[in-house]
């Protein structure tokens, strides 16, 4: 088994020595391998692969496809990620980083009150992955240092050499208070367009409901959207937050994403993205094949998943699967009027851009609970 690629936000691939299409993990699963059986086919053997910022291909189609890549975009991307060398650093960056590492926010505040230090507030430095003081503070979870840096004008969405924002690092390390402060300071809940992963995918994978809710409340997109050129679209639509929450068994995150408007079929509403996948797998099919609890199947059906999409046969699922029984029942019996009314209400709210605003309606509490799938 060979591992290809590294770096947070990159696609990690494991290939068997035999021929055939490779298998890959979800784009953000570098440090947390998926549970047994939770593999998703990401790339066909004829598709260019992306690992961090290294682009490679196993076929001759690369020469044809590379012409479609915008050289301007690549140049701009790398120029944004390079450390600035336009000012002489006489140890100021090191002192700032030391104060951040020790969470000595008072000293940090005093240093940044001096011009000779403040001009290095957004400078990338340090061993390993050069980063700004804000990125370092967010990674360590030092919320007071984060607040001081932001108060002195630190760039909230500054990128490190992996195109990771401070918010991305705070989410990756589960620092909820830092996430809150960064979002309130205007950090993009989507992370960087130059990174193949996003804070929402990380939160869904890790099962952190509080962080996931914060991101969603600040406008994070619940459905997969294309971040890559068409020639590299691969099966990203089958690796959205709903898929991750399902295969990792995070039921609360799964339900929260659906409440905020995630598509229950493919977790993707861009038809051109889905069309580029040879054999797209619906969430229903994925949950059944991976033996997810029946509650996942029940939620998908209740939230309007097309029960006729998955090509599921009994011999391909676990014997006596409760989830399969639920699917077969849903195919045989039409939804109740109450269930259809709930779907219609949620569909209307989704069209207005507020799929989670049911609690604000002036209707009886019992009805609100039903609309929000509460007992």
From TrEMBL:
**UniProt keyword list:** ANK repeat, Repeat, Ubl conjugation pathway
For this entry, list what GO says about its biological process. Answer: protein ubiquitination
The ANK repeats are at 129-161, 162-188, 195-227, 241-269
Q: Which domain of life is it from?
A: Eukaryota
UniProt cross-references to SMART domains, sorted A to Z: ANK, SOCS_box
> Which residues does the annotated region (Disordered) include?
1-26
**Domain SOCS box: from-to ranges:** 334-374
* Pathway(s) where this gene product acts: Protein modification; protein ubiquitination
Return the InterPro entries for the record. Ankyrin_rpt, Ankyrin_rpt-contain_sf, E3_Ligase-Neurotoxin, SOCS_box
Q: Which Gene3D superfamilies match?
A: Ankyrin repeat-containing domain
Q: What does this protein do?
A: Probable substrate-recognition component of a SCF-like ECS (Elongin-Cullin-SOCS-box protein) E3 ubiquitin-protein ligase complex which mediates the ubiquitination and subsequent proteasomal degradation of target proteins.
- The protein's assembly and partners: Interacts with CUL5 and RNF7.
Write the protein's name.
Ankyrin repeat and SOCS box protein 12
What organism does this protein naturally occur in? Patagioenas fasciata monilis
| Gene name tied to this protein | ASB12
């Amino acid at each position: 088994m060979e591992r290809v690629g590294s770096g947070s936000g990159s696609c990690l691939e494991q290939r068997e020595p035999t021929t055939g299409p490779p298998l890959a993990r979800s784009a953000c699963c570098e440090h947390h391998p998926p549970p047994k059986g939770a593999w998703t086919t990401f790339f066909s053997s004829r598709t260019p692969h992306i690992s961090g910022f290294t682009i490679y291909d196993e076929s001759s189609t690369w020469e044809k496809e590379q012409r479609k890549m915008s050289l301007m975009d690549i140049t701009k991307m790398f120029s944004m990620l390079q450390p600035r060398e336009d000012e002489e650093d006489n140890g100021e960056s090191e002192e700032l980083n030391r104060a951040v590492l020790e969470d000595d926010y008072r000293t940090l505040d005093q240093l940044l009150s001096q011009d000779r230090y403040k001009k290095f507030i957004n400078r990338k430095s340090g061993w390993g992955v050069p980063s700004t003081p804000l990125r370092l503070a967010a990674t360590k979870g030092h919320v007071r240092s984060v607040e001081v840096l932001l108060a002195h004008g630190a760039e909230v969405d500054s990128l490190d050499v992996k195109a990771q924002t401070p918010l991305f690092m705070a989410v990756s390390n589960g620092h909820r208070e830092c996430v809150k402060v960064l979002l309130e300071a205007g950090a993009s809940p989507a992370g960087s367009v130059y990174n193949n992963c996003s804070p929402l995918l990380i939160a869904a994978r890790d099962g952190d409901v509080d962080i996931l809710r914060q991101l969603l409340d600040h406008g994070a997109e619940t459905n997969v959207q294309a971040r890559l050129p068409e020639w590299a679209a691969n099966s990203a639509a089958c690796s959205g937050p709903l898929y991750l929450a399902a295969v990792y068994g995070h039921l609360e995150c799964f339900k929260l994403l659906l409440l905020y408007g995630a598509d229950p079929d493919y977790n993707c509403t861009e038809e051109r993205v889905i069309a580029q996948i040879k054999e797209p797998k619906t969430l229903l099919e994925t949950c059944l094949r991976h033996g997810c609890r029946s509650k996942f199947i029940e939620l998908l059906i209740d939230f309007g998943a097309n029960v006729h999409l998955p090509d599921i046969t009994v011999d391909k699922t676990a014997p006596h699967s409760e989830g399969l029984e639920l699917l077969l029942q849903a195919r045989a019996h039409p939804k109740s009027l109450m269930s259809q009314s709930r779907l219609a209400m949620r569909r209307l709210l989704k069209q207005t851009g507020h799929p989670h605003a049911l609690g604000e309606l002036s209707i009886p509490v019992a009805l609100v609970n039903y609309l929000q799938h509460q007992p």
